[in-house]
Every structure is written in C-alpha cells, then in structure tokens.
Amino acid sequence: MKLLLTLSAVLLASLLQAQVPDVQHYDFQLQLSDQHDSIRGVATIRFQYTDTFSSVRFNLAGLQRGKGMRVNEVRAKDKRIAFSHQQNDLFIDMRGLDRQQPEQEVVIQYAGIPADGLIISRNKYGSRTFFADNWPNRAHHWLPCNDRPDDKASVRFSVTAPAHYQVIANGLQVEETNAGKGLKQTVWQEPTPIPTKVMVIGVAEMAVGLLDSAAGVPVSAWVYPQDREKGFKDFALTKGMLDYFHQYIGPYPFKKLANVQSRTRFGGMENASAIFYEENTPTGKGTHEDRMAHEVAHQWFGDMVSEKSFAHLWISEGFATYCTNLYWEYKYGKAAFEDRLRAERQQVVDFVAHNKTSVVNTTSDLQSLLNANSYEKGGWFLHMLRRKLGDAVFRQVLQAFYKNYAGANADTRDFQKLAEEISRQNLQPFFDQWLYHPGVPRLNITWAHSRGKVQLQLQQTGETIYHFPLELAFVDAKGKQTLHRIQVNKVKERYELPSREKPTVILLDPNVNLLFEGTIRE
Ligand SMILES: [Zn+2]
C-alpha cells in the first residue's frame, strides 16, 4: 500500500468505501522507450460523481515482482489530492473537491512495466513492438480506468515514442509531431464512447497502406514491412464486409477502419476502428476472411452495442459469429452458408457433451466464456430466431437493436424485449430454452411405413425438454424430396405423415434450421 499523504486508519477505511465512477472521457499521454519496457503515463479522466462517497475507485494494476504501475501523483484542479493504491485499485480522495459539481476531473501520473495489457515484445521477425491486448479486463495493467464493459467513454491517446515507429490507435489521427531527440508524438482521438476492452494503441515499425474506402470511411492496413504485400492484399477484403454490414445493420459507427497485424493472443481482437489480428493472419490468399468478417461485425456488436456484463458475452460473440454467416451467405451463397452452420452446430454438440453451462453465464472465470456457447450457440440462436420471425422481421429487429443501443450496453432481456415488441410475439420460452438452459435437443427418432403413412416415434433424451419445429424430407426412389414439418413439444411423441410410397430415406432438418443432435432410423 502506498499513500501520498498521511491518512489515519479511520480516514483510510472511509476512502475504501469508494464510488465506482461513470467515466465520460479518458485522455492518456504515454511515453514509450526502446531502452526499457517501463512506460510513463499521465491520465486525465473526466467522470460523473455523486456526493454520497468520499472517494472514487479506478482500476490500476499495482507493483508486483518488479512489474505493474506506481502512481506518483494525483491532482484535481491543480491541487494534489490524497490517494491509496491497493493491488489493482486506485482510491482517490474526493473530500477536498467541490462535490456539487456533477462532473469531476482527475489527473493521474504513473509509471511502470506493464505486467499485461500492453504487450511489449518482439514480433515474428524479431522486431520490437508494443500492442495493447485488453480483453476482457486487462486495460488496467497499463491504463488507470474503470475496466468494465458497461462504462463507455471517449478516448484520446497521445503517444510519444521513438520516431522509427508507426503508432495506431482508436479514432482519427489528429497530430503527428517530431518531438526531438529521435522521438515522435502521435495523437489519436475517438469521440464515440467505447468500452476499455477495445481501447488500444499499437506501436511498431509498420507498412501503412490506404487500401480503399467503404461506408464513407478509409480502410487501411498496418502490417509488418515484411508482410506488406500479403497484408495489403488480404485486408482489402474488409471493404466488402464494411459495405455489407453498413447496409444490412446500420451506419458504420467509426471514422476509419484500420486492420492491424499484431501480437494479440487472440485470432483477432475487435478494437474499435483498429482491429488487431494475430500476426499470421495475412497470407496473401485471404485464408482468414471469416476472421476478418467476424472482427468487422464486432464494430457494430461488441464495440458499439456492448454487453452489460460478460454474462451476456454472446451479444458480442454470437452476433459477430452469425453476422459472419450472413456475410458468407451474401457473398458465397446458400450452400456455403449452410456448410458453416453445420460445422458450427457440430462444435456446439461437441461442446455441450462435456459442458453443462448455459449461454447466459455469470461465471467469474471470464476466459472460460470464450467457448462454443458464446460463439456458435449464440450464433445459432440468432439463426433460429431469424427462421422463427422471417428474414424481414429479423433484420428489423437487428437494425432496431443496433439503433437503440448504439454507444450503450444491452443484456439478453433487452434484446428479447425489443424482438417481442417488433415481432409481437411472446419470445420468453424461446429465449429461455436456448439461452438460459445448457445443452441442445437430443433426439432419437424411428420410423415405419404402412398404409400410405409414415409413423414417426420421437423421443427427447436430453435433460431439457425443448419446443421447436422440426423439418423432415422424405426422399423417394427418384431422389425427389417432400418436405414435412412437425411441432415437437414433449419427451415422447408419435406423428403420422402421409406418404403413398415408402421413402427410401428420411432426412432430418434438411435446410439446416435447427440446433440439435440425434438420428433417425427405420
Ligand atoms: Zn469475437
């Protein structure tokens, strides 16, 4: 524990009764060096504050085994104020300030070697790089902030670094100045409120190319010089994605789209208007087109509309997964779209075989949420919602969800409420069974043919009894398919469907409309 001013135990206890701020704006001035991995920062934070508590609490990783941040000074209105930095929390004493003001501003001076969050390392070509990698709540390893997805703020990064680096961050570049002594100051500004998980800088020697424009904004690539050709070629694909989502969902929210080759631990990270891709993404062959589409879709869902808490992560990942499929259907057609759905269904089936959690999941192990529930099952849920509502109403729901929650946060029930209002359907049972229960329907179906009819015997063998429409195709000797649709509501049910001839085979869910596992046999 470190205190700048002497505090009595009683005062300290009252300090720790802190309010979590509602941040409006972050201004980060950062200094980076080639000589060492220590960074120096000045964070100016503007936030809403109500009078009830004597202090506010920000997140900032403290010193541990030589790494972490040390706070040197906190000021407000040019006055030094008391603070207490304990582990990952920075408590700032607000008692000396005019707390009648609804908005407050503090200036925090700090320095240290980031233990995480800002990854200072060497890329695959051995060059020194600095890449932020904040998801889910690792921003506080290098930035004092309210490190949670539901406190969105605008951000300005002013980075002073050795002049041989290019510097990328969220928003628009508003300044680049030679700062002397071989240093350069680069300033980026993002006026749209975004969560800390997608507030980043990337500093490396990069080839920077303006590739195209889409949705009225420039599309650029920031890649290692060695991968210039491959990167410029592959990242040009994001133009088509931006155009597609812009017309399908709603206006693109940011002022640019930069595609950045980086050292992220993820395949791609949807940092707002500056997507960071894992460094092997550019191949020159468009190998990772779906990864790019996923991250571009996140600009709408994840960055602009964000989950209220990570329990509703599927609002980021399920939406990005399904939007990728929508783009695939648009670009490559129905068969390619169905191939993706089948593969994703198999991923869900494999996952739920050993995992008994639901899509909406309040676990505190946030890394464990990067699973087939959040991604593929969330995506499949949207696919089934689309089939339930029809293409036009589904699109209306998606557009309204984006419009209503742009710049804000939503949870699963917010989405449900909106979908119910627009579709005028009660969707409670539908949302509950797919998002609040583990698993998928497990079906065991047998059939027989007699007297011009097919008799089906259906059994649900899973723990949850689902309600859903199931399509079956009867295939005759000439290969002609006749489609039938039954409504399944019970553990065990019998159905009789007309069929003069005995089918040679019966196909389950031929149009890939249901998330399930199971078989049908004669
Ligand atoms: Zn994602």
From TrEMBL:
GO CC, alphabetical: cytoplasm; extracellular space; membrane
Stretch forming the signal peptide: 1-18
Organism: Cnuella takakiae
Entry annotated with the keyword Amino-acid biosynthesis: no
Record family assignment: Belongs to the peptidase M1 family.
PANTHER family in alphabetical order: PROTEASE M1 ZINC METALLOPROTEASE (PTHR11533), PUROMYCIN-SENSITIVE AMINOPEPTIDASE-RELATED (PTHR11533:SF174)
Protein name (record): Aminopeptidase N
Entry keyword annotation includes Protein biosynthesis: no
Enzymatic class: hydrolase
Names of required cofactors: Zn(2+)
GO BP field: peptide catabolic process; proteolysis
An example Gene Ontology molecular-function term: peptide binding
Domain Aminopeptidase N-like N-terminal intervals: 24-196
Stored InterPro entries: Aminopeptidase_N-like_N, Aminopeptidase_N-like_N_sf, Peptidase_M1, Peptidase_M1_aminopeptidases, Peptidase_M1_dom, Peptidase_M4/M1_CTD_sf
UniProt cross-references to CDD domains, sorted A to Z: M1_APN_like
UniProt catalytic activity: Release of an N-terminal amino acid, Xaa-|-Yaa- from a peptide, amide or arylamide. Xaa is preferably Ala, but may be most amino acids including Pro (slow action). When a terminal hydrophobic residue is followed by a prolyl residue, the two may be released as an intact Xaa-Pro dipeptide
Annotated keywords: Aminopeptidase, Hydrolase, Metal-binding, Metalloprotease, Protease, Signal, Zinc
EC numbers: 3.4.11.2
SUPFAM superfamilies assigned to the protein according to its UniProt record, in alphabetical order: Leukotriene A4 hydrolase N-terminal domain, Metalloproteases ('zincins'), catalytic domain
Peptidase M1 membrane alanine aminopeptidase domain mapped to chain residues: 238-434
